[in-house]
Design brief:
By secondary structure, the chain is mostly helical. The chain contains twelve helices and no strands. The radius of gyration is 40 Å and the shape is elongated. 31% of the residues are buried.
């Protein structure tokens, strides 16, 4: 099948499409895009479940590490005031993990924007295709109504005027039959009229879902950014309560990161299967939803020399009929107007109607050509399979960096928290370090006053 203009499956599509798939019984599943089949659905769910497995393993690792840290620490010697060795390394490793998480947030914002751009391109292509289909229906309906009005009024009036000349009446009736034949041929060109599938409705549904998806990712990215910034602030201020709150929040964001990773991985794999060979699935789905013939769908989705225009015969017959009407009206104008001056007005009106109809007919021929709709189809595929898929991969990288950074942070924060110096609650924070020497000075006994000869105190 011919690929749309400008679209070729990317290397990422080929790579993801080649990944093995299996159902819940670990039986191999073909990589062809078949979302209606249960085995393929299970394969995508299994891909998403791998993120759940990663979440479980990371939580087990964090729990084991913290239990070992809390229960297996060697006792500190009494009177030891110096921090244990390696404390600075723990703090800096936590800061480095948070900085990696901030870099992942930047990647996430870029991936979210790319995904939104791809979906917007898909919606724009659907809206343009809907405009083309609506224009075809409107032109057909307008042309048929114009021809019908001409048959009911001008041609009927012309027959009444020429009733004394049977040969001229026969010519006028021939023009009537030709006009009715053109109207009948044109009615079949509005192939999308009455079809239950509306590109406009699909575009609105896609935009609605994308709006909430974009907003959810923005909130997740901002939440992780706030967690990273406040954790760094807690480490800088050595605030235990802030570090404890951010530890709980880091655990929540870790769960959300692994969950988003599962959704992104399953979506990327399914999208790669679709983008590797989209024509087959789109043709079958459109045929089922619209009931249109395979000739029409193949012509617009493939648009190559091997597929002929299914409307070519009707267009040719209509063009010939319009040419015949034009020649018949010219003959009537030469023969009838000198004898029947009242026939000039309906003839001029018919010629004007015929000129407008021919102009609309040429515009209709251009709209019915496969180039326009096929170009929209290619733009939709490029938006979905290039920009949106690339954005999903960046979001997947963000989730991976976020999960690794948060897991490292959760392991490092308790050790960093243990290194914070104790604070005396009875003393204010601002003057605690300055008041300690003063307290020690008050507790020490004062030396006796020294006396000098000749210097004695006088009583007051």
């Amino acid at each position: 099948m011919g690929a749309p203009p400008g679209y070729r499956p990317s290397a990422w599509v080929h790579l993801l499409h080649q990944l093995p798939r299996a159902d819940f019984q670990l039986r191999p599943v073909p990589s062809g895009f078949a979302p209606q089949e249960q085995e393929y659905q299970q394969a995508l769910l299994l891909v998403a479940a791998l993120a759940g497995l990663g979440l479980g393993l990371s939580l087990i690792f964090i729990a084991v590490y913290l239990i070992r840290f809390c229960c297996c620490r060697p006792p500190e010697p009494p009177g030891a005031k110096s921090p244990p060795p390696g404390g600075g390394c723990v703090t800096w490793s936590c800061i480095a993990a948070l900085l990696v998480g901030c870099a992942g947030i930047g990647i996430g914002f870029y991936g979210n924007s790319e995904t939104s751009d791809g979906v917007s391109q898909l919606s724009s292509a659907l809206l343009h295709a809907n405009h083309t289909l609506s224009a075809i229906d409107h032109l057909v309906l307008e042309t048929v109504e114009r021809l019908g009005e001409a048959v009911r009024t001008e041609l009927t009036t012309l027959e009444e005027v020429l009733v004394q000349r049977p040969e001229l009446v026969a010519a006028a009736r021939g023009a009537r039959r030709q006009a009715e034949a053109v109207a009948q041929q044109l009615q079949a060109l509005a192939f999308w009229r009455g079809v239950p599938l509306s590109p406009l409705q699909v575009a609105e549904d896609v935009s609605f879902v994308e709006e909430y998806r974009w907003l959810a990712y923005v909130l997740l990215l901002l939440l992780e950014l706030l967690v990273c910034l406040f954790t760094l602030l807690g480490l800088a201020k050595q605030s235990k309560w802030l570090v404890i709150v951010m530890t709980v929040m880091s655990l929540l964001v870790l769960v959300l990161s692994w969950g988003s990773m599962g959704l992104e991985a399953a979506t990327a794999v399914g999208l790669s299967d679709f983008c590797s060979s989209p024509d087959t699935y789109i043709l079958n789905l459109t045929r089922e939803e619209t009931g249109l013939s395979s000739d029409i769908l193949n012509y617009y989705f493939l648009c190559n020399q091997a597929v002929s225009n299914p409307f070519q015969q009707r267009l040719t017959l209509s063009q010939r009929a319009l040419a015949n009407i034009h020649s018949q009206l010219q003959g009537l104008e030469r023969e009838a107007v000198p004898q029947f001056p009242s026939a000039q007005k309906p003839l001029l009106s018919l010629e004007e109607t015929l000129n407008v109809t021919e102009g609309d007919f040429h515009q209709l021929v251009a709209l019915l050509h496969c180039r326009g709709l096929h170009k929209d189809y290619g733009a939709a595929l490029r938006g979905l399979c290039e920009d949106a898929l690339e954005g999903l991969l960046f979001l997947l990288l963000f989730s991976l960096l976020s999960a690794g950074a948060l897991a490292t942070t959760l392991c490092s924060l308790p050790r960093a928290w243990a290194l914070f110096p104790p604070r005396n609650p009875s003393v204010s924070c601002s003057g605690s370090h300055l008041s300690e020497p003063l307290l020690r000075a008050r507790l020490e006994p004062e030396p006796p006053p020294r006396s000098f000869p000749g210097c004695q105190r006088r009583p007051h």
